[in-house]
Amino acid sequence: MSGELSKIAEDSARGGFFLIFGSIIAEIISAIASIIVVRFLGPELYGQYVLALVAPQILFLFADLGISQGLIKFSASLRTTGETEQIPHLIKCGMLFRALIGFIIFIVNFALADYFATVVLNRPEIGPYIRIASSSIIFQVIFQTVTSAFVGLDKTEYNAFITNIHAVAKAIISVALVLFGLNVAGAVIGHVASYLIASIAGVSVLFFLMKKHFKTEENGDFTHNLRTLMGYGMPLYASLLLTGFVLPYQNLVLGIFTSDVVVAYFKAVTNFVTLITVLSIPITTALLPAFSKLNMTSNGKTKDFFKLANKYTSMLIVPTAVVIMIFSNEIVRIIYGAEFQHASTFLSLYCPLYFLVGIGYLTLTSLFNGLGETRIVFKTTLINFSILLILTPLLTQVYGAPGLIIAFLMSNTIGTSYGAYIAKSKFKIEFATKPILKIYLVSIIAGIPAILLLQFSTMHELINVAVGGFSYLFTYATLIPLAEVVTFSEIEKATEIVQKIKLLKDVIKPLMKYQKTILGARCKIHVLRKNNQQTTGF
Description:
The protein is mainly alpha-helical. It has helices spanning about 5-50, 55-60, 65-80, 85-110, 115-120, 125-135, 135-150, 155-215, 220-255, 260-295, 300-325, 330-335, 345-350, 365-370, 375-400, 400-425, 435-445, 450-455, 460-480, 490-500, 500-535. The model has no long low-confidence stretch (mean pLDDT about 85).
């Protein structure tokens, strides 16, 4: 790996670590709070809570206009070229413009709350809840803009900080209000208040950060800065708009064709699948500045970095999806209780989405965005969304939630395949096909001990998951070097990168050492076998 690629990899590893670490802590806190809220509300009231957020979530999508991704892109590229004096003006411009748009959308949502409840969702009783939830749009806009600025500035530790403030605030307020008997209203108020608190904290930290590192007396051209951000981000925003519309659209379709209970089951599944999302979103977010930097310096190295990034993303995501599928029944019972048992089927059906990671499901978007090819991202997303838009109501009406999930899988498979084709044909991008195929094979084989355990064990579900999960991790970590998915030099470089992240090295270093031992033993066996063949003549 060249010096430049090493530096980019180190920055991405550092950024990805803080994003993943912060997201994991936030998701653990949110998961605990969600479990408590779900258990006290029950499936029906929890379904109402989910539907109360549909309208604000959909309208919130119209408050970005490409600003967030523009901030990430240009904050990273301007730091690379040394033009840091422009960064504060871009951030201020993006913040003010998005806050204005958010306020306008809040007014629209607040005024039409009863219409959404009565006409669209056919549930007039949730109108007041939608009205309360509408105010979250303003604070969510500020929160998202701040987090985008932190990522572009390579200050992802602050991103993790305010993400956890949001999670803690939501957990404390939502749980407290639900326990005090406010039920759905309490959960919605907690949702709004958490964004308010996190946005205040985020703006405060960002203000002092810019004041310390980016001193400039010049006033930026607001119109020029806005045109710069939107010029890059608008094609990308169009794709993000379609992507962001998916989950609210799915909840809306479920609300029309199924009951509040089924809506709650599906939401419970998507809540838990965020375990994979916790790993995937930080990876893709951290890769965008990396590809942007490579594009500003040397295009020839982009292919090598993509191949490496896609391979290691697959190594992380594919086994995670397999483990969740194996223990789906136990996971649902442990977390949500027997009332949600039927949701385990939905969880098993949903996880194969992440098997697409091998053909770039989580990395192609960052590649295209980093290269400035946002129109390709839009075309890919449009293909995905068009298929989803048509198939979702058709399959949901016939098969319920499983039909909705199948429609989701089909649309993503076609969309990702198109993106992979464009990457290979237009940019000559290569996938590490052989190692990735080995990753899929090893991920499946590593699950055999866990599956056998579930077949014969009479232990408690929690013990089965703990023991089975450890056996899976041990088997997977052993088979990966034996199958030559990673090389000795790759492990050495990964260890060197991890060493520079204090909070990560103590956790990863033993694993790296174990895999180096396996590789060393394998090499010795190979040498002995070769020498024996030369001696015996066979």
